């Protein structure tokens, strides 16, 4: 179940096809369109059977990397080319975006960490395509 929202590039309400296209991995692109019909990504079955992580959408390369680590701990495999997508996405971002994200992450490791406002802004940065 997902919370029905539309915020920035995050789409979790509306037509099921559009919602699924906004999910990052093929293995989570699955949704019920009715009690008897399920819509899945074209690569869903192939990748799920083989426990392969295939990135189809990256909102933020940092948050996507963290999600890849989470799924790897569950036994999924991220092919090297899929990892490259994360680096290419990072390189395609503006200096302003990258610097702001790095600043937040560096601040998060300091003694007091991030304020509630900082966390809200960091989460927003991680939802930007």
Beginning-to-end CA distance, first to last residue: 22 Å
Shape: globular
Strand percentage lies at 5-15%
Order of helices and strands: EEHEEHEHEHHH
- What is the SS-derived class? alpha+beta
Spatial order of the strands in the main sheet?
1-2
Determine the number of helices (DSSP H or I, runs of at least 4 residues): 6
Poorly predicted sequence stretches spanning 5 or more consecutive residues: none
Structure summary, number of beta strands: 6
Largest sheet: 2 strands, antiparallel
Name the average pLDDT: 84
Please give the radius of gyration in angstroms.
Answer: 16 Å
Helix content: 40-55%
Overall description:
The protein is globular and about 50 Å long. The chain has 129 residues and is α+β, with helices and mostly antiparallel strands. The model has no long low-confidence stretch (mean pLDDT 84). The chain is built from six helices and six strands. The protein has helices at 16-21, 44-50, 61-73, 80-92, 95-108, 116-125, and strands spanning 6-7, 10-11, 30-34, 37-40, 52-53, 77-78. It has a domain at 94-129. The strands form three sheets. A two-stranded antiparallel sheet has the order 1-2. Helix 3 (61-73) runs antiparallel to helix 4 (80-92) and helix 5 (95-108) packs across helix 6 (116-125).
Helix and strand arrangement:
Elements: E1 6-7, E2 10-11, H1 16-21, E3 30-34, E4 37-40, H2 44-50, E5 52-53, H3 61-73, E6 77-78, H4 80-92, H5 95-108, H6 116-125
């Amino acid at each position: 179940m997902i919370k029905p929202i539309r915020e920035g590039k995050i789409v979790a309400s509306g037509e099921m096809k559009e919602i699924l296209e906004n999910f990052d991995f093929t293995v989570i692109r699955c949704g019920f369109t009715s009690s008897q019909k399920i819509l899945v990504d074209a690569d869903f079955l192939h990748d799920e059977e083989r426990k392969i992580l295939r990135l189809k959408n990256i909102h933020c390369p940092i948050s996507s990397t963290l999600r890849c680590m989470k799924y790897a701990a569950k036994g999924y495999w991220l092919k090297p080319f899929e990892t490259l997508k994360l680096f290419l996405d990072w390189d395609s971002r503006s200096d302003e975006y990258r610097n702001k994200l790095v600043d937040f992450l560096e601040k998060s490791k300091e003694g007091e960490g991030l304020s509630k406002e900082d966390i809200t802004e960091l989460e927003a940065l991680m939802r930007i395509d």
